[in-house]
Amino acid sequence: MILTNKDKMKETPSELVIHALLLVTAVLSVFITLGIIFSLLLNTLQFFREVSIWKFLTGREWTPLFANAQYGVLPLITGTLTVTLVAATIALPLGLSSAIFLSEYSPPLLRKILKPTLEVLAGVPSIVYGYFALNLITPVLQRWLPQTEIYNAASAGIAMGIMIMPLVSSLSEDALSSVPLGMKHGGYALGATKLEVVRSISIPYAFSGIVSSFVLAVSRAIGETMIVTVAAGARPNMTFNPLGSVQTLTAFIAQASQGDNAHGTTSYYALYAVGLLLFLITFSMNLFAHRLIQRKKEAAAS
Amino acid sequence: MRNPISYNKRREFSNKLAHLLFATAAFVSIFVLVILLSDLIARGSRFINWEFFINFPSRFASKSGILPAMLGSLWLVVLTALISIPLSISAAVYLEEYAMENRFTRFIKINISNLAGVPSIVYGILGLSFFVRTLGLGRSILSGALTMSLLIMPIMIVATQEAIRMIPASLREGSYALGASKWKTVKGIVLPSALPGILTGVILAISRALGESAPLLLVGAFSFVSTLPKGIMDSFIVMPIQIYTWMSKPSADFRDLTAAAIMVLMALLLTLNMTAIIIRNKFQQTYE
Description:
The structure holds two protein chains of two kinds. Chain A is built from twelve helices and two strands, in the order ααββαααααααααα. Chain A is an all-alpha fold. Chain A has one domain (70-236, 247-301): MetI-like fold. In chain A, α5 crosses α6. Chain A is globular. The model of chain A is unreliable at 1-7 (pLDDT under 50). Chain B is built from eleven helices and no strands. The model of chain B has no long low-confidence stretch (mean pLDDT 90). At the A-B interface, α1, α3, α4, α5 and α6 of A face α1, α3, α4, α5 and α6 of B.
């Protein structure tokens, strides 16, 4: 902001009212965060009155609907990790490669086609990726690997990987395009090939930006709900087998909210405990990613 | 001593190989999009007819239609826009034009960018416990729209901030020099000049609301609705939830019906996206 003497500008009473109204809307965002934290925390506390935190975090069985209900969250965690690992295996290399292609290799005309395609892919609703996983990826997997179940972690993970790939690509490309031209030209002047410039100049310089794009994309994958609800099944399994049915943190929340889960029962409050865990995981990852970019910006500015 | 010629050949070869690999990766997106769209058209086309747009969902795939889902989505999106657009623009104007560089402002900015990364289902949990239960709004369009507004506001605020930041200081200074007050400058100069950028961000955020389903599983959107919504307190169903309901049915007919509904949703979203891109390319001025 160029105007540094903002506070010295005189505001008439009506202008002050407008100023205050604008301020209120900006502060609203803080209340949204507080609202999320409080609604999760209060109901989770209710849950921990009946189930011990220790059992929740270390239990290996998740059976909220059984007569003898068990609330060990580990099967949901392994389910989430399996799907996320598959997604990351797809999205991180593909996303970074296409970012490198777009920023370093691509002719301008091709870029004009590829960029909007990635934007469209990023705008496809997650329920459509669920359809893609269930009706297009699973049949292919079943043909290759007959032991694949109809609902499986792999097909959901692959679809999720395709969904988050544009995010990796666009954020990594932003990072790569921030590399000063002089540095790259220096490399070329020494006779380096494009690949050598990418490998020893661009990627090291843009490293924190690339890592932060990875972290943001993985956090998006962990929080994604519809693909896993549709395609990964609903069996909380303590397994890393990608061809079997699993349940993720998000898929449990979706399932618990739909069933005839009476308000006030333990299995109802379990929804909030799982939600809080999901929120804490994704929130810390996002915070980490933003810190990474911020540090880089400050280092570049100084 | 290694042979310099073969060494250089190897370097060139690996460069070409990498070029090919990177290009292949970049083309995966086009490949996926083509497969997805052609599958949808191949399966869904036979259900796309006039009846499909004016019928209610039914036990029989051939008699099913998406009228309640389309109207529900329209109600939800319009109400969400009415709630979120003024609030988001106003928050962005405060942050860019009024706020001073201090800890408090930085905190709000970090908070907004973190909110944009909160999983959508968590907003659903907030909506369920606050709007549906605490405020007693029930599983209504209003609950859904309020929840959806919270979800897309961070996206809209950030987009509006970026649009406002593009306006050069000289424009504002010109306005001040003519004796205009702060608010008059914002209203008369900053917002009109930033309008194309703001509009692009708003349209993209709205299309996000149109395609989003996870929070609505918790907050509203019944899987079966027998009447059309007439007001904001009515129950409703939206297109993504209708798609989800049909997708859960095992029959091949319903799978193809799902494809038809996705075709309609994707057509709407692509139109919105195109509009946003056209506005961005046509009307966005670049300032030196």
